[in-house]
Description:
This protein is an alpha+beta fold. It contains three helices and 13 strands; from the N terminus they run E-H-E-E-E-E-H-E-E-E-E-E-E-H-E-E. It has a single domain (60-246), classed as Alpha-ketoglutarate-dependent dioxygenase AlkB-like (Jelly Rolls, Sandwich), CATH 2.60.120. Strands 1, 2, 3, 6, 7, 8, 9, 10, 11, 12 and 13 form an eleven-stranded antiparallel β-sheet that branches. It has a two-stranded antiparallel ribbon with strand order 4-5. The site of 2-oxoglutaric acid (AKG) has 9 residues, from strand 6, strand 8 and strand 13.
Amino acid sequence: MCASPRPASPAPDPGPEPAPPRAPVPKPAPEPSAPGGAAWWLLGASRPLLPPTSEPLPGLLVYEGFISEEEERLISRGMMREAEPAWKPGTFNGLSINKRWGVHCNLRDRLVSAPTHPLPPYLLETLGPKLAALGHPKLRGFEMNEANGIIYKRKLGHYLAAHCDDRFLSREPICNLSLGGSCYMTYGRVRSGSKKGLQSAGKEEVKVLLKPRTLQVLTGEARYDYTHGISHGDLLDEERISVTVRMSPVTRKGAA
Ligand SMILES: O=C(O)CCC(=O)C(=O)O
């Protein structure tokens, strides 16, 4: 059986209206302090920009999850679908499958000449604004005009020979994105006074884990004083793809 409703009695006087709750006051972003006191990613910025996930070597800025899975698919598909420039097996810096866009760096004659295949929109539009948004002082004015893609296949014995990107033809920051698979990249300090030029000092090696969607920005010591390479055994998945972008101003004269 249902209870019948009681007759309504007059409502008690609620008294004065309580004050509405105050909206929380957002904390202002810390302002950059004087040089020397502020982290580099605060310098020149009115609010903190994205700090790296880690800096395993001086000047090696690692940003995990730099691009989304959707952006990763967009870049990979773009690279795979375009007919030109074509993928070609390469042996220049190890064994891999390569393509390149943008200006041509002639390492022997120290010349940078106009591009045959300009950088594609799927690279420029995805990476350009994101690199600028990092707010790193070394990336100010960075206009990528050279890029290369590498496919590593473990079953084909692929690897990247230890090397330093050209010190003169390309500007300081080298930006490198990992797609599709993980690897360890080995950084080896260049032995000073070596007659053979670049050689890694065995004891001064640092292995850096590069997961898919990780960006590395090589600056300073990591750019100039260390070689970087990937041994075959450090490819952790059957396939890994990388994209490296640089700024290499066109020159008509030799740069060295
Ligand atoms: O595969 C990588 O992540 C590095 C590629 C590289 O060092 C290069 O293209 O010069």
